[in-house]
Each structure stands twice: as C-alpha cells, then as structure tokens.
Amino acid sequence: MIELPTRPSFDLKVCWVIALEPEARPIIDELDLRRYANKLNFPVYCNPENGHALVISGIGPAKAAAAATCLKMLLNVESYVGWINLGIAGFYSQPIGKLYQAIKVYDTAEKKSYFPGVRLSKILKCQTLHTVSQPEMAYLETVLFDMEASGFCEMAPTFSCNELVFVLKIVSDTPDHPVRLVSKETISQLIYQNMEKLKEIILVIEKLVKEEKKRLFISEEVFWYFDTFHFTQSNRHRFLQAYRKWKSAFPSRKLTSTLAGGNSASELISSLENELLIASKNWKLS
After folding, report:
1. What is the dihedral of CA 268, 272, 278, 281, to 10 degrees?
2. Could you tell me the residue range of the domain that residue 269 belongs to?
3. Is residue 5 situated within a structural domain?
4. N or C: fewer beta carbons within 10 Å in the chain?
C-alpha cells in the first residue's frame, strides 16, 4: 500500500484505465505502481515518483467511464494529464499479439463514434475499434473488437483534451484462435511482449503532456489580478484565454508591462487583446 503525498508534490503525467487485472499487471510491474491505501470501488495503483496512476475498471463501457471518473476525482487529475486505455481485443485476422492504436472507436449499442488521440502512426499501426456488449465470435468486420473503450472515450476527454486520450489494443483472439482459448496468463504475456513498444509510446505521450502543461500554466501574477480586481466567471475565462495567447506571443514579458493602466477586469482584458491584435499585424505567415 502507498500513502500519496499531497499535491503539488505528486506530479501526475499519465492515467491508465484498464479493464482486467491480467491486462494491468504488466503495467503495474513495469511502472512500479503500488496499491492506493483507501478502500475504493475500483482498484487504484500509482507511483508518485514517475507520475503514473492506474485504475482497474472491470468489463463494460459504463464501468470504464466510472473508473476513469473515480481516478480523476481521487487524485485531482489536472487537465494536461494523458489518459490511456490499454487492453486486449478481438480482430478479424492474425497475428495474435499485434499492438494497434484505435483512432476511431464505435459503440455498437449506442451508435456513437469517438476519435481519440494524436495519431502515433510512426510507432504503431492505426485501426478502427468496435466496442461490443458481448465477446465477439463472428469477426465479420475488418475492425478490432473490445468491451469498454467507448465508455472511456466518452468520459476521458472531459478531463483532458481529446488529443491526450489514447486507446491501445493488442490482438488476443481471431477466427482461428477464438476468445475462449485466451487465458489470464496469455493476456498478461501479450502485454509483456509489447512492453518495449509501450515504453516508446509512453515517452511520446509524456512529452505531449509536458507541452500541454506548459501551455496551460498560469503564473502567480495572474492570480494577483484575480485577487485585486472583480472578475465575473465569464471575464475570468476570457482573461485566461487572452493571457495564454499573450504569454505565447511574449514569453519573457510581465503582465505589469501591459496592464499597468488597467482599473477594471474589462480594461485588463482589452489591454491584452489589443496588444495581441497589434502584434499579430506584424506576424509573418509561412
């Protein structure tokens, strides 16, 4: 068991939502994740040192969505953190053990489609995934089949941007090797044998997370203005949007250089937006 330090010392980078313990075990071992101490509806594991956390959801879209929500609330997951759903899947053809990124996830019961994640096509092949309510036996369509990804894809993008939500599936069963032949030991082995590729993917996602964290960073000087001036909720949101664009344009500047004459929230926002407008006229478009 592990007692987590209070934030911000626990710098979370990636959250894993995995349906089955045999699927999760290789990730738990590789990332040295330890069981969270509290009694929870879903088993949660984490490692404060490397910034990874994992929840075992059980089978089904509703459980995947609920488990993701549990992890988000339990660890107060920030909006720059990456989310990964990893697991086994049926496929219409060999080879067993091949790892895919699902770039389209279709819920066959709800008739809804999701398009998660930045494509990692330089690392692994992309494929369409159908989330089904029962184990696939016919394999009539040239797609992957699982039983939880659509619930994950519906919920995880509400916690982070959709580009940081990833669905990774490893082929476990095909028409020539039906799902009834897949044991718990086989499931874990399929994950272990893809570990080098998964570690490569993790490094890419962690880099994307770092870039998103930097993009969303809010300086202490922003909170000084929030404390000093009255901001409505809509003006607060507008100010943050303008600030992030302004900071990207002028990374070494201080807010006081632009907002020294402001006497209200609306004047502060106008000052930022006007300076951006003036600067944009001199930007060269390639």
Report:
1. -150
2. 218-280
3. no
4. C
Residues 67 and 179 in one domain: yes
Measured distance CA(162)–CA(141) in Å, rounded: 26
pLDDT (tens digit per residue) in 193-242: 999 999 999 999 999 999 888 877 877 888 888 888 888 989 888 888 88
The label of the residue with tokens 């389209």 reads 104
Structure-block tokens of residue 203: 């490094």
Is 105:111 a contact under the CB 8 Å cutoff?
Answer: no
Angle separating helix axes 195-216 and 184-193, nearest 10 degrees: 70
And the tokens for 281?
């006229």
Least Cα distance to 149 among 170, 173, 130, 128 occurs for 130
How do residues 262-276 score in pLDDT, each as one tens digit?
A: 788 888 888 888 888
